[in-house]
Amino acid sequence: MSVEISVKGEVLTARLAGEIDHHTAVGLRKEIDTAIDLNLPSLLVLDFEKVNFMDSSGIGLVMGRYKKISRTKGEVYVCGMSQNIFKVMKLSGLESIVKLDKKIV
Amino acid sequence: MKTDNKFSMTVLSRSTNESFIRSVVATFAAQLDPTVEEISDIKTAVSEAVTNCIVHAYKDSIGKIYITCEISNNLLTVKIRDKGVGIENITKAMEPLYTTAGDERAGLGFAVMQSFMDGIKVRSKLGSGTTVVLRKNISVRYGTARE
């Protein structure tokens, strides 16, 4: 599991890769949160294109980042989901708080 | 019902084993020739059950997780058992978004298991442990031979 972080203006993009579960989510959370604290972005893009497995720990990861970034009025955008990841995401009701790109990859 | 195939294993409740256990179950299930979606459903549900053992059952300790997997006709049954703290209120624990594990847990583990599998049974006793039984019917596809 890895995350590649890039910043352009007020947009922070985190490109996740590998498998997201309770074990791997801890490290991802730390890396993304450090980048948020450093850059204070108004938009956090979470790109799941290279994620090949995700359980509900991924939902916790998105929800936690949403809570963090919304304190500074930032927004979260989730994209690059495969059918299977979208299926997990949909269960969560996350759609009401973050923008989900429904284009399945 | 006749059991066609079966395996059991015992694994320590270390979080690094989450991916190991779901991969083993998925590999075992592969003999039923499941679709990519069915395999993904099984892996996700097993991952949730195992995570519950690690995060809740053995919250402050390392214990054993007992996994039994059976195939009978086109039915896969996965039993995940721990000897941890047990669940005080199963109905409440199964409510979507309910969690006792803090902000980073979504409280959707049982919701995923219920939604992605065809059957789930939970038995628990405080101080003794919890058993989760997951069932999934694997669709029979035409043009594929199964022994």
Describe the structure.
The complex is a heterodimer of chains A (105) and B (147). Chain A has 105 residues and is of the alpha/beta class. Chain A has one domain: Transcription Regulator spoIIAA, CATH 3.30.750.24. Chain A has three helices and five strands. Chain A has helices at 22-39, 56-70, 83-91; strands at 2-8, 11-20, 43-54, 75-79, 99-100. In chain A, helix 1 (22-39) links the parallel strand 2 (11-20) and strand 3. In chain A, helix 1 (22-39) runs parallel beside helix 2. Chain A starts with a strand and ends in a 5-residue tail after the last strand. The model of chain A has no long low-confidence stretch (mean pLDDT 94). Chain B is α+β, with helices and mostly antiparallel strands and 147 residues long. Chain B has one domain: Heat Shock Protein 90, CATH 3.30.565. Chain B is built from four helices and five strands. Chain B has a five-stranded antiparallel beta sheet with strand order 1-2-3-5-4, with helices on one face. In chain B, a hairpin with a 3-residue loop joins strand 4 (119-125) and strand 5. In chain B, helix 1 (17-29) runs antiparallel to helix 2 (36-57). Chain B is globular. The two termini of chain B are 17 Å apart. In chain B, 36% of the residues are buried. Chains A and B meet through helix 1, helix 2 and helix 3 of A and helix 1, helix 2 and helix 4 of B.
* Beta-strand share of residues of chain B: 25-35%
| Ends distance of chain B | 17 Å
Query: In which range does the helix fraction of chain A lie?
Result: 40-55%
Principal-axis shape of chain B: globular
Number of domains of chain B: 1
**Which percent band covers the strand fraction of chain A?**
25-35%
Topology:
The complex is a heterodimer of chains A (105) and B (147).
Chain A: E1 2-8, E2 11-20, H1 22-39, E3 43-54, H2 56-70, E4 75-79, H3 83-91, E5 99-100
Parallel strand pairs in A: 2-3, 3-4, 4-5
Antiparallel strand pairs in A: 1-2
Helix pairs in contact in A: 1-2
Chain B: E1 5-12, H1 17-29, H2 36-57, E2 64-72, E3 75-82, H3 90-93, H4 109-116, E4 119-125, E5 129-137
Antiparallel strand pairs in B: 1-2, 2-3, 3-5, 4-5
Helix pairs in contact in B: 1-2, 2-4
